[in-house]
Amino acid sequence: MFHLRHAASLRQRCEHRPKRLEKSTDTDMAATVVLKIGPIKARFEGSVQLCDLNPPFSYTIVGEGKGGVAGFAKGTADVILTEQADGGTLLQYNVKVDIGGKIAQLGSRLIDSTARKLSAQFFSKFVNSLEKSMSGLFGG
Asked: What is the DSSP string of the chain?
């Protein structure tokens, strides 16, 4: 399962409103994302990097983006994959986000809830896309 997360098309289907996700290496990508956080809607240009690779058990996603006057965002997601007795895989993640600029003025409760919502959406879409990919591979 671990190697499938490297498929750029799979990751792009999971991103929140991706405008662009271009792979430069197996672990580095350039990204453009449009986000709405409270009353602020901004286009962020940035990068995504996969690091601390420990196949098939864990990896870290590191991202950062600049949204002009809206500010900046930097974040990491530590991802742990654990094989289950039933043959499935448990996906766990811990996300940390640092922001600045106008979006930082919105307040930590709004930022925290938005970060949790976006993380949950990403990993939910990731699991759904992965299940569809696996179904196609095995004719399910």
From this structure: -GGGGG-HHHHHHHSSSEEEEEESSSSEEEEEEEEEETTEEEEEEEEEEEEEEETTTEEEEEEEEE-GGG-EEEEEEEEEEEE-TTS-EEEEEEEEEEEESGGGGG-HHHHHHHHHHHHHHHHHHHHHHHHHHHHHHHT-
Q: Which residue has the tokens 């498929």?
A: 7
Which of 62-76, 92-106, 119-133 bottoms out in mean pLDDT, i.e. has the lowest? 119-133
Which residue type does 24 have?
S
Q: Which residue has the higher pLDDT, 112 or 25?
A: 25
What is the rounded CA–CA span in Å between residue 54 and residue 68? 35
Are 4 and 137 within 8 A, CB to CB?
A: no
The better pLDDT of the pair 77, 119 is held by 77
- Going across the sheet that includes 89-100, the strands are 18-23, 28-37, 40-54, 58-66, 72-83, 89-100
